[in-house]
Amino acid sequence: MSLRIAMVSDHASPLAAAGGVDSGGQNVYVAQLARHLVRAGHHVDVYTRRDGPTQPETLTCPDGYRVIHVPAGPARAIPKEDLLPYMDGFSRYVLARLSREPADLVHANFFMSALAAMRVKQALGIPFVVTFHALGRVRLLHQAETDRFPVERMVIEDRAVATADAIIAECPQDVEDQLALYDADRRKMHVVPCGFDRDELCPLGKSIARRVLGLDRSTPIVLQLGRLVPRKGVDDAIRGFARAVLTHGAAARMLVVGGDSERPDPAITPEIARLQSIARAEGVESRVTFVGRADRERLKYYYSAANVFISTPWYEPFGITPLEAMACATPVVGSNVGGIKYSVVHEQTGYLVPPHDPDAIAACTARLLKDPELCRQMGHLALARVRSMFTWESVAESVEAVYHAVLDRRPARKRSRRAVPGT
């Protein structure tokens, strides 16, 4: 049965380039879920804030879903921590549009999107599902006074947890956090992980990948890829890499991929300057290369070129980049937190280490670099695991099942009589 789905993603556009400060896993999640739901025969509109003056109000993507750029605040990039004052206007627009173009269900992504979903449910009776992607109370535990989100965030999340028709948790830790910190109803919760795109990511062979990237074919490579913000623990990854080289004698170089520009510019991405100073202080400045932001079509070459992928955030609601590395048969050294401890199997597909522990990172990284056969075996196991458990096709099927479960619980549900395009 085809559904009309209104997917709301206030700050994370499916069209945005990954790797910037506010562009990461949620952008990929929304884009891939929308794409695969359309493939399954559904109509999907993605509502996201207009953050550029030339963006059209409605754009149909090649993958078949529509992106609706909501006019809410200035048409420019604004840090997500500063967007809440514009969410009333954002919610009014979404409500007005859905009053004219009804949907069967709203899928809110992030707490500010849940504001719009709650208003729509109250006014129009359309049920909503929410994926939080990150939780304010968890963030506050780890970031304390550096957390710039307003205190209203937790109030909004409490309301969304209480009023959502279903909650999609991305890993078991997400469930436990919502039960403990938000008094969530376990009966409404469904664990559906993130995924990787089999059309986009696959093992290419190190020699091929390095030739494309212009990298030396013999020197082992340690890769860190993703958003360059302090909580991602890239500083710990660099310190761990330095100790793997200088203390454990592992011969390697490190690539750091990410930032707000295609060239690594500390003026545009200040975190690069901080990380460069750490590499210099650790004595590995010549071995650490900052690449800048990479287009998604180039990611498979970086993942495939690497011998080891490091992802050591302080906390992580899920973490898509470890999945993507595993999809290219690269073992992961990851923090034993959140979704990473769900996707990475310790001593099988990589190693799990405590956050803030460069010595543990160093020991595990050196072990893999010094034992190519172990590295190869773990890479093969990593590939098998993600192909069996973490594809976007299976994610979309599971999310679709949540949608239908929500709608089936509404005996008086009235479906839109408007035809779904393409049916």
Topology overview:
Layout: E1 4-9, H1 25-39, E2 43-49, E3 58-60, E4 66-70, H2 87-100, E5 105-109, H3 111-124, E6 128-131, H4 136-143, H5 152-163, E7 166-169, H6 172-182, E8 189-191, H7 206-213, E9 221-225, H8 234-246, E10 253-257, H9 270-281, E11 288-292, H10 296-305, E12 308-311, H11 320-327, E13 332-335, H12 340-343, E14 350-353, H13 358-370, H14 372-389, H15 392-408
Parallel strand pairs: 1-2, 1-5, 2-4, 5-6, 6-7, 7-8, 9-10, 9-12, 10-11, 12-13, 13-14
Antiparallel strand pairs: 3-4
Question: Could you explain how this protein is built, in words?
Answer:
With 423 residues, the chain is an alpha/beta fold. It contains 15 helices and 14 strands. It has helices at residues 25-39, 87-100, 111-124, 136-143, 152-163, 172-182, 206-213, 234-246, 270-281, 296-305, 320-327, 340-343, 358-370, 372-389, 392-408, and strands spanning 4-9, 43-49, 58-60, 66-70, 105-109, 128-131, 166-169, 189-191, 221-225, 253-257, 288-292, 308-311, 332-335, 350-353. The strands form 2 sheets. Strands 3-4-2-1-5-6-7-8 form an 8-stranded mixed beta sheet, sandwiched between helices. Strands 11-10-9-12-13-14 form a 6-stranded parallel beta sheet, sandwiched between helices. Helix 8 (234-246) links the parallel strand 9 and strand 10. Helix 3 packs across helix 5, helix 7 crosses helix 10 and helix 8 (234-246) packs across helix 13. The longest helix has 18 residues, at 372-389. 53% of the residues are buried. The model is unreliable at 18-22 and 415-423 (pLDDT under 50).
